[in-house]
């Protein structure tokens, strides 16, 4: 039972966390760990007897919180990792204290999850029939959930009960992605036994968006060869450049061809909240399913993804295996969350989602999103205006794809330089940016998710890229 020690430690934990968050902006964004500190963690001995709470807390403060990943700092622009919403941080403690399994039943966490899934659907403007979604560990898992439902429908329409008969009974199903589609789609596709060879990569236009004419041609070719097209995946913000696919023509084609339209909105779906770019998302509400990540742009502490599915019966029909001893009729006709996805014991994710959204309100969330897209566009403009920097894609959401291109280097040297730049920038500790390859070219990729990032921070990013670039060019082996 909690005693005075617990209460004292809880207060100290609150102080530790608040001090940590306060100090973050003043610290190096990231630093490599000293070998001794790394070893101290790797070689931690299993304690034979218990360690008191205050000593545990000291270890957390001295050995763990001293070596963060860097996301949380307003000058962190890496991958798609956000700063945690403070309200969400507090909520995780309360959620852990309750520690329910949000599988089903009549307790607060279950009802709260239904509410926040509806909120998420409302935020992105997706229709939400009761039961049409659930929280997951992330978009990778949400994609498995959505694609499983899509596979179930395709099989049923082909007269096959894939749950009973398995993959061998299926006609050759094909699906369509682009070269910009996140790898989690291929992973889900492979896990569902559909076979990588039948996941077609459709061409994109210059703008990185799915080329609908190429999709139509690929579908026709597969049909002519006796295969059964059933799925197209569009992106609401690609991970490389933040491009948003043109949903209307894709949805038109999907409708004509009977394809399940799945949208990967992990990073970018919430961009629809910014009036300045909302038009790019026209038609997203026509999808059959969306996978998205409150643990990215919304800043909900990791982990939290979400699957939204239009056809709830299809979703439940894909996963429900409710044995009689777990049935809960009192919970109403929706049944248990565990009938809509892969997990049985499920964490209380909804409290941190509720807190992260409710603390700001819809307007506050939208303002945070709009702040980051505006800064991203400004960064794009700054890059475009500099002779030694090159913008590689238009800034559609809050990702800026660019490269450092000082005068006098050939293509190969520019590639080498940009390949080595992210690590060199990171080591300097002032900003954090990551790299990627776009169209065969090494580039830097800055993702803006933090509403406390300022114009001075994005200017510093460019200064740091130049400074690290100069260091690299001074190395004897670079060019
Ligand atoms: C992050 C991301 C994913 C994967 O989501 P996880 O939450 O990491 O599982 C998929 N697609 C896009 C576009 C992403 O940014």
From TrEMBL:
Record-given protein name: Pyridoxal phosphate-dependent decarboxylase family protein
Pfam family, one: Pyridoxal_deC
Annotated PANTHER family: GROUP II PYRIDOXAL-5-PHOSPHATE DECARBOXYLASE (PTHR11999), MIP05841P (PTHR11999:SF70)
Keywords: Decarboxylase, Lyase, Pyridoxal phosphate
Highest rank taxon of the organism: Bacteria
SUPFAM superfamilies noted in UniProt: PLP-dependent transferases (SSF53383)
Cited Gene3D superfamilies: Aspartate Aminotransferase, domain 1, dopa decarboxylase, N-terminal domain, Type I PLP-dependent aspartate aminotransferase-like (Major domain)
Record-stated family: Belongs to the group II decarboxylase family.
Cofactor: pyridoxal 5'-phosphate
């Amino acid at each position: 039972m909690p005693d005075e020690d617990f209460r004292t430690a809880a207060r100290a934990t609150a102080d530790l966390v608040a001090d940590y968050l306060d100090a973050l902006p003043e610290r190096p964004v990231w630093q490599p760990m000293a070998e001794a500190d790394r070893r101290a963690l790797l070689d931690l001995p299993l304690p034979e007897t218990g360690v008191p709470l205050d000593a545990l807390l000291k270890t957390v403060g001295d050995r763990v919180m001293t070596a963060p990943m860097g996301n949380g700092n307003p000058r962190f622009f890496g991958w798609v990792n956000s700063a945690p919403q403070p309200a969400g941080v507090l909520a995780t403690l309360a959620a852990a204290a309750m520690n329910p399994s949000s599988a089903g039943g009549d307790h607060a966490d279950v009802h709260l999850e239904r509410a926040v899934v509806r909120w998420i659907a409302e935020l992105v403007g997706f229709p939400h029939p009761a039961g049409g979604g659930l929280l997951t560990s992330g978009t990778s898992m949400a994609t498995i959930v959505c694609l499983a439902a899509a596979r179930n429908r395709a099989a049923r329409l082909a007269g096959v009960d894939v749950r009973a008969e398995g993959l061998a009974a299926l006609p050759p199903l094909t699906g369509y992605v682009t070269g910009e589609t996140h790898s989690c789609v291929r992973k889900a596709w492979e896990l569902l036994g559909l076979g990588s060879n039948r996941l077609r990569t459709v061409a994109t236009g210059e703008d990185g968006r799915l080329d609908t004419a190429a999709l139509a041609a690929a579908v026709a070719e597969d049909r002519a060869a006796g295969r059964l097209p059933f799925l197209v995946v569009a992106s609401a913000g690609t991970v490389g450049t933040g491009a948003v696919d043109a949903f209307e023509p894709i949805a038109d084609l999907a409708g004509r061809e009977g394809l399940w339209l799945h949208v990967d909105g992990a990073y970018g779906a919430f961009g629809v909240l910014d009036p300045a770019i909302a038009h790019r998302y026209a038609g997203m509400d026509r999808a059959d399913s969306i996978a998205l990540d409150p643990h990215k742009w919304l800043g909900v502490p990791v982990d939290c993804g979400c699957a939204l599915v239009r056809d709830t019966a299809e979703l439940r029909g894909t996963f429900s295996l409710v044995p009689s001893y777990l049935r809960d009729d009192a919970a109403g006709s929706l049944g248990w969350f565990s009938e809509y996805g892969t997990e049985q014991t499920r964490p209380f994710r909804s409290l941190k989602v509720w807190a992260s959204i409710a603390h700001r309100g819809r307007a506050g969330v939208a303002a945070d999103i709009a702040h980051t897209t505006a800064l991203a566009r400004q960064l794009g403009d700054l890059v475009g205006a500099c002779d030694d920097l090159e913008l590689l894609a238009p800034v559609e959401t809050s990702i800026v794809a660019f490269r450092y291109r000082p005068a006098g280097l050939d293509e190969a040297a520019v590639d080498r330089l940009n390949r080595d730049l992210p690590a060199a920038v990171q080591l300097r500790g002032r900003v954090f940016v990551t790299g990627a390859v776009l169209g065969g070219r090494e580039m830097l990729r800055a993702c803006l998710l933090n509403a406390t990032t300022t114009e001075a921070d994005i200017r510093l990013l460019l200064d740091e890229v130049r400074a690290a670039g100069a260091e690299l060019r001074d190395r004897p082996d670079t060019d």
